[in-house]
Amino acid sequence: MFQIVRKQEMAKGTIIRFDISAPKIAKKIKPGQFIILRVNETGERIPLTVADKDSFAGIITIIFQVVGKTTALMRSLNAGDIIKDVVGPLGKAAEIEKTGTVIMVGGGTGVAILHHIAKAYHEAGNHVIGIIGAQNKEMLILENEMRNICDELVITTDDGSLGKQGFVTGPLKTYLSERYDIKLVYAIGPIIMMKNITKLTKQFNIPTIVSLNPVMIDGTGMCGGCRVKVGNETSFACVDGPDFDGHKVDFDELQNRNSIYLKDEKDSLLFSIR
User: Fold this and answer.
1) Contact 48, 37 (CB under 8 A)
2) What is the CATH number of domain 2-90?
3) What is the tens place of the pLDDT at every residue in 185-231?
4) Torsion of CA 215, 221, 222, 228, to 10 degrees
5) Rounded to two decimals, what is the model's pTM?
């Protein structure tokens, strides 16, 4: 049993943060890795990447968007409530090293995953440039947390209600065009965002890592739902990743696969969440 010690609603209640007491996981989990949880005995298992941890207090932080039956059920929980199962750490940890100047790009709830990794790059002594985006200022998450770990931070919103109007690719292109010390770009967010970022960075020959968390389902490699073509090989995001060389990912195939179950996810919300 795992207790929720803190709950925070963000983005008008569509994005939820849980701080969960999980001492053993908190001691071992590394940036980029994920957990699998099951809310109750009859619940489905879902993978969620850890957004932060406090090893001393034994706390892990997860942030999720309410998009289906299980996340709707999770939103109904509060501090003090119990989650039946939490298993982890799973997946390969991000490879953190001191390389110089790195650009960390996050969109939507991808900022939650990005935070833990950007924090590690900062602690490793890198100059961290953060670019985070959302549809509008109400949907932007972890602005203050990202400011604390980024040497430079640029915010974009689709409607211009906060920061620069437009997409994250705009300021990224400016940095790549004007600076010659960029060693790495790290992108986490919607598939179309990561696809466009890798197209851009390829023009400048900048190594780019993408996190394919959005396509994970089972989390153990058994279902094949997160199958992705990387170069000439078939990989599974949950066991071989979730981080991959963005310039080798077949994003067209990935987009098609990721859209298969959209109708089923919407239909599931029509049924009782309990």
Assistant:
1) yes
2) 2.40.30.10
3) 999 998 999 999 999 999 999 999 998 876 666 666 666 667 777 88
4) 50
5) 0.89
